[in-house]
Amino acid sequence: MSDTIVVGVTEASVTKRAIDWAVRRAVHRRQQIELVSVVGGAIGAVGEGSVMETVLDATRRMLDEEAARISDAGVRVTTRVAAGNPVNVLNEASAQAALLVIGSDYRGPGAGPARGAHGIRIVAGAKCPVVVVPDIDIHDRTGVVVGVDGSPVSEGAIAFAAAEADRLGEPLIAVSVWTPVSAPRNSAMVYPELYLSNMQRTAEENLALSLGGLRAQYPDLVIDARAVKGYPSAVINTLAADAKLAVIGTHGRNAVTRFLLGSISHEVLQRLATVTVVSR
Fold this sequence. Notes:
The two termini are 15 Å apart. This protein has 2 domains: 1-105, HUPs (Rossmann fold); 138-280, Rossmann fold. By secondary structure, it is an alpha/beta fold. It has helices spanning 14-29, 48-69, 86-94, 117-125, 152-168, 193-211, 214-217, 232-240, 255-260, 263-270, and strands spanning 4-8, 32-39, 77-83, 99-104, 130-134, 144-147, 172-178, 223-229, 245-249, 275-279. The protein is built from 10 helices and 10 strands. Strand 2 (32-39), helix 2 (48-69) and strand 3 (77-83) form a beta-alpha-beta unit. The protein has a 10-stranded mixed β-sheet with strand order 3-2-1-4-5-10-9-6-7-8, sandwiched between helices. Belongs to the universal stress protein A family. InterPro entries: Rossmann-like_a/b/a_fold, Universal_stress_UspA, UspA. Keywords: ATP-binding, Nucleotide-binding. Residues 1-134, 144-273 form the UspA domain. This is Universal stress protein.
C-alpha cells in the first residue's frame, strides 16, 4: 500500500488548508507528501510553447514555496507540475496514492451557491479515498461523523472514520439515516406508528451490527451511534457542521456511477460542511 498523500495545489487560498491537513495526517501516520499542480488550457496554438513554459516555471516556484513553508513539519515532500486536464492528472495520480487531498473554495451552507462538478469529477474517478477540504475554520469543532448504511462500502467508511477519530482523539458519530416511503406532497398520507417504530428499530439494529468490534479494536474511542429519520445528505451535513471530519462511502462501479457518485455523496460534496472524506 502506498504511503504517499497526493495534494492537488492551486492558487486558491483554500490550498493552504488542504496542504496543512495533509501534513498533519502525514506526520501522525509517517507518510510522505506529493504536491501536484496541473496547468491546463493548452490547445497547441502557434506561440503557445513559450507561454506554457513561463506558466510552468511560475507554477514550479509556487510549489517550491509551499514545500518550503512545510519543510519544518518533519515529513518528506516532493513536488510535481503537469500540463493537461486537472481531473485526469489527479485521477491518474490517485492510483499510486494512499490519499488524494483537494481543496474547495466553498465556505459552508449559507455562504454561496453549491459547488460545481469539477471537484466531484475528481472524487468520482479517483482510485483511492479523497479528502475534500472546504475553506472553513474547523479548529473549535468536535467529532468525526460517518454515514452508515450496512453496505460493504459503508464498512470501509466506518474503518476509515474510526481510525481518524482515534488518531484525533475525537468521538466517532456514526449515523444511520432511514427515510419513510415517499408519498406525493399533496397526499394526506399518515404513516402508521408501527411502521415508523419498526423502521427505527431496524436502523438501530443494522447500526449496531455495523459497529460491532470497534470497541475491541479502539477501547478508548467514544462511539455515539445514532439512527435518525430524515434524508441522508441533509442529516450528514447537519451533523458535519459541528464536526472536524465527515466520512462517506461511494458505490460507483462503472463509468456512469463513478461520474455521478450517487445522489447522497454528490449532495454532501455540493454543500460541504466540514473536511469530508469519500472512501471506496
